Amino acid sequence: MTTPMMYSNQSELPTLPITSIEDTLKRFLPTAMPLAESKDEIKALQSAIDKFPSQASMLQKRLLERVDQSKNSSWLQHWWNTLGYLQVRDSVVINVSYYFNFQDDKTLRTGDGTHNNNPVQIQRAASILYACGQYRNLVTSERLQPDTIGRNKTPLCMTAYKYMFHACRIPRSEQDSYRIYDPHVYKHAVVACRGRFFKIPLIDNITGEVISVSTLESHLNLIMEFADSAESAAAITELGYLTGDNRDVWANARTALLDCTGMSEAMEWMESGCVMLNLDSKNPVSKAECGRQYLYGNGYNRWFDKSVQLVVCPNGKAGLVGEHSMMDGMPMIGLANHIVNTSYEQARNESSSSSSLSPSGGQQFEESSISDIFGDITLSPQVLDMIETSKQSYYEWTGKHGIDVQSFQGYGSNFMKKSGFSPDAYVQMAMQVATSRLFQKQVGTYEATQTRVFLHGRTETTRTVSPASAEFVQGMNDNTLSPDEKINLLSKACASHAQYIGNASKGLGVDRHFLGLSMLVQDGERMPDLYSDPVFIRSKRWRVSTSNLTNPTINTWGYGEVVPDGVGLSYAVHKDHLMFGITALKEHGWTERLSQYLEDTLCEMRVLVESNNNNNGMLPRSKL
Length: 624
Hints:
The protein is α+β, with helices and mostly antiparallel strands. Helix content is 42%, strand content 14%.
């Protein structure tokens, strides 16, 4: 038997540090100064900073005491999970969830009479479920290889993985909870089809192995036939809409649901499923269409509280929807890798139906095989009214959004590295120029930086705005500067960004520290002046929310904007191309324009870099 290893590095992980107030202020000031709009604002900001050490000294003392009391965890973890996610009352749709668009599976078989004639949707869905079952077994048995980062293979915290399978967010009034079910008891997955939800066996109760692909295909075919049948069509449930509503609205609706006979057991089966597989009806083709389909789809064929939803379309396109509250995107990359790298052909060849369950006979949905989770439940008039209200809210919210994808094929990280730049920093500077052209000024910009090198670490903010990035943005729009001068500004901006992100990954950012201090102001005490300073507020109002997830198994990915007058800007830096996912409210008309600004800026920057290279300009080699 293989020795469990997934958590083998946990005891070695350091705890998240706290820097001195002086160090935090020294890092903060350069990120805010470029956003000041007058000399008076600069003067007021400097005054607030000068007062901060004395005004926050007691808060710092309390925070250090909290650190001492959190030796087996992180001083930040509870605050971040609750304040940043579980207490937020907005819908999780677009606001919290994110999507991955998987690469296509080239081994799917079209019906040629010589092999099985299952639709490609069934083939892709079965192979994805099979791969999920394999990965689930690795995680639940703790045999998954622990994550590391860098050439030195620095260990990363693995705590987030416990929220990947058999997990579900639970709506509560004021603050949600998260429920994890015992994988030794629950071995099924949930399949959504035409708005109905089915329990399907995934792990064999006797052997503990994943159900074979051929058996999964048979079960999925039965589900589709049942969902498509005339008697089923008249009773399509739209319960999924409830999960996409305001969290308090959904919490009230869940209470009403549980008053319906049989609902408590049904909800347990729904929430305890390993993952949810969504068999959708639309055939998205473009990357933007795929983004819209995966991020929110039709609303009722989803259960947005599930930690992992896997969407498969009739044309074989597939993706993932992640519920972000307890798990960030990086751990999900491992699951995506395993899914995409386990092709249909490989999964079918690996699995054997002889050791798995056989499909139930005829069209009967027996407890031992497949069951319609809510099929025998009568919904009350109150619940039906709630569903209708949530349906209207859902379409109003999703209808307000635009999603665009910039698939830039001009060049990628190879060119950037060869030219001496950190690819991430280079792309961040391109995004600064593009968004500055969109907004006519630089705005608060967030880049998510993982801090999983610490016990229970999640992320820190890398602030892209800096004096160096401001000078580069201005320089790119200044026709009086020579190419050499602009290249020099780019080099300085990239070096500054690389330094900040390096510090942030070590827990030496500023935003989590400022949050921690603010949380310890007690009743009757005055908040330090800095927290109400307009430039401080502007510097942390993330009108541009960026995150880099680069992996060959993911075609595109994305999420929503953080503030109503902002953009969500996901990106991936591949060797020979770049991908950007752009989300914003339609009323602004920003997504298409930002896509064009990104393309134009990247082309301009290449011309600059090539002119420098042709002139034998010497730039430092990238170490990233």
